[in-house]
Amino acid sequence: MVAVNSVLWQDEVGVPGVIRERALPTANELGNRSVLVKVHAWAMNPCDSMLQTTALPFVKYPVILGQDVAGTVEAVAPGSAAASKFSVGDRVFGFTANNGFQDYVPLDYTLMAKIPSEDIPYRDAVVFGLCITTSSFSLFGKDYLHLEYPKLSAPKTGKSVLVWGGSSGAGSNAIQTATGAGYDVITTCSPRNFDYVKGLGAVKAFDYNSPTVVQDVAAELDKGDCAGIYMAAGSNAMACQVSAASKQKVSNHVLPSSRSPTV
Questions:
Q1: Is residue 231 in some structural domain?
Q2: How high is the mean pLDDT of the chain?
Q3: How distant is the alpha carbon of residue 91 from its chain centre?
Q4: What pLDDT is stored for residue 3 in this prediction?
Q5: Interatomic CA distance for residues 211 and 221, integer angstroms
Q6: Beta-carbon neighbour count of residue 178 at 10 Å?
């Protein structure tokens, strides 16, 4: 194992980032939950740019930029909970809050997964981490929509979920996971992406630019029982307008996608 690790630090807002070297964590420092990943690909997110230019009250500088990584497992503490899931050499992707732009990244084993096929390159797998984490917290977190969890062959719940911005990064993940939990997903996007979102599992897609989209979507939701609205991309006001236009009392979670939308 190499003795040093190159790390990109943002020391303060408005100054260029600085690359510094530091020692890799030992097995004891990795502890019970962390896996050391040798990175082969990083993903860029809008929040990475924001942390360079905007002072956020909940961020303490200096900070290591980067959220999404993909690579191979370099080390894991023997006998740890992490070692029960991952082994040295596994191809993996994962999410880390402001700690990703390093050659070697320690990841919490619950926020990473094995890349399911050797045919999937690292550059493709790396985009999943932050998007699926964002959408999963919003859909299934107990403090958010708190939907039923997805599982293999989940029975139909008889309820719908609205994913606004279904062709965005977070929206694409939300459609698949909500469908996997047994919900009928209704979504919005550009007409050119209708086939794409339906291929992910959406049962109905609406043009988000339509002047009647709020009324049309609310009418569709009112055909049955809506479990909630997830605002994956776009203006938060749209989710509130749909909720107000519906005849139901519809909960919504207006957490925009942290990745630039492709709606």
A1: yes
A2: 92
A3: 19
A4: 60
A5: 18
A6: 33
pTM score of the predicted model = 0.85
Q: State the distance between the two ends of the chain, measured CA to CA, in whole angstroms.
A: 44
Could you tell me if 245 and 214 are in contact, meaning their C-beta atoms sit under 8 angstroms apart? yes
142 shares its domain with 248:
yes
Whether residues 108 and 153 share a domain: the answer is no
Which residue, of 120, 142, 163, is where some domain finishes? Answer: 120
**Structure letter (DSSP) for residue 154:** P
Domain finish residue from 75, 94, 120: 120
Percent of the chain's residues with pLDDT above 70: 94
**Nearest one of 91, 98, 76, 78 to 39, comparing CA atoms:** 91
pLDDT tens digits along 1-35: 456 899 999 999 999 999 999 999 988 899 999 99
Contact 221, 250 (CB under 8 A): yes
How confident is the model at residue 260, as a pLDDT?
34
17-46 core/surface letters (b: 16 or more CB in 10 A; e: else): beeeeeebbeeeebeeebbbbbbbbbbbbe
- Residue 184, both tokens: 């009928």
Nearest CA to 188 out of 159, 160, 158, 168 is that of: 168
Is it the case that residue 161 has pLDDT exceeding 60?
A: yes
Indicate whether 50 and 143 sit together in one domain. Answer: no
Whether 252 shows a pLDDT value over 90: the answer reads: no
E-assigned strand segments in the chain: 4-10, 18-23, 34-43, 63-64, 68-76, 91-95, 104-108, 112-114, 159-164, 184-189, 204-207, 225-231, 252-253
Same domain, 155 and 229: yes
- Please tell me the predicted confidence (pLDDT) of residue 259: 38
- Determine the length of the chain: 263
Provide the pLDDT confidence category of residue 256 given band limits of 50, 70 and 90.
very low
